[in-house]
Amino acid sequence: MDVDDLFKASGSISKRKLDQPIRDPNEIYKASKLSDSSHPHAQAEDDVDNNNTNNDNPADDDGDFGPELPPDDEEGRFFGGGISKQESEILDFVDKADAGGGDVDKLDSAWLRKTVLNLEKLINKNAELRSRYEDQPNKFIDSEADLDAEIKNLSLLAEASHLYGEFVKLGSAASLVGLLTHENTDIAIDAIEIIGELTDDDVVTETEQWDTLVGALIESDLLSLLVSNLSRFNEDDESDRNGVYHSLSVLENLSSQKAVATRMCEEDDLLKWLLQRIQRTESPILAILTAAAPENREKLLGGPEEEFVENLFEAKFLEAEGTELCLIMIKESKMAKHPSLRLLDHATAGTASVEICQRIVESGGLKTTFTLFNKTKDQRLVGPLLSIFSSMLRFLPADSAERIRLLAKFVEKEYEKTARLAVEEEHRQEAAARAGGAEEEEEDREIQLLSRKMDAGLFNLQLVDVILAWLVAEDGGARQKIQKLLAETDDDLKAIQRTLKEQLAELDTSEEDSKDLGDMLGTLIDFLD
Prior knowledge:
The N and C termini lie far apart (116 Å). The radius of gyration is 39 Å and the shape is elongated. Among the domains are: 109-254, Leucine-rich Repeat Variant; 307-396; 406-437 and 444-529. 65% of the residues lie in helices and 0% in strands. The chain is an all-alpha fold and 529 residues long.
């Protein structure tokens, strides 16, 4: 600019110097360099001379008046616009890309090779400076900033998924995964974020291209490096928390492929980390992994994970008032009655059975369940109801208020509910006898006989006799009533005792729960003598 132009009007006001501009925080990470031909200070133009208003050819009325806004300087600092030079260039790039013209680089093979070459150079340069000046971070921080920026440039590759195959052939997938081992966690997090963008479900790509990229990432040991970084991140730091989030996003993206999901389950450290951290973010990944292949589900069965999930469900069942909700649906919903009873049945037999049984009594569940038991003709509902009553008699503490209230239900109205149990017992005994009489001479006769008895209602018969045995043991009046009811069918307490002995003989007492059940059955059998 001609210096004389700054003073072309004799009456122009003097310009004050611009305040020292604030350094862009994004540029602190880099050391800026001025070219020989550039000037470090912004240049300003003079105001328009007021005498111009008297010219024969005045400026257009639509023109802007007043001093011109100072441009961004060459160090990337910002003034009136509120954005840095780098951010301005990014916005210009996006605008030109949207317009479909300009000097925007075309996302083709040439662009990819150029980008990959720059990335490899910066990786090598940073590694060299780090090893040479290990104890002098100021010597390699500039190269690290350049590397950080170049990694982020790879996000454009997500818009050109047809280049994934060439990206892999150039060895860049392995280089990108290798950055997960970088000493600077910010670099590792950037690499993880880019991997997440490239493998995201929203990326429009052919399955073959996606498989090629993911296969190369997996072969470069991506899974184990992700787990290593999950252990290395300090979640008290916001940046590291973002790293955990991006890592989980990558895992979720990869698990959409069945073969990869199976491979992920072979990473013991990954499964341990997910199970320890099971929350809203991690649980979908576990759900995908277990649904992806039967062998994944089998790995979680029978071990501490299965027990953990059961305990978690029961804890949340109590916390979320699941007992109360089940009782409401049993009482008011016809469609949900049976599923709610089954859920309550399983809950009363679990590790939180004592608390759930107590909650049933406290929530008015005795009236709901006993009324339904006394009136229903739907045999699908009888089984869960009998199982709930049996569990309550087994788990409610002796002499507790809840147990006394339960026993009172069997006694009220002249043992009405006890009489209903005796009727059930009679029907089940007859059905079991018919099933036993139909036996044939076969090698597997005992197995088929047991199967026919189960189909005829042997399980419900066992539940009924366990409940009757508890009543005989707990209440003298109930014992007399039960003996009287059995005598009407030419039976006695020995019939109940035989059923309990058969059940005891079938138990596998090697398991802890079965051993406890066996002890209970043995005690009840003694009371029936």
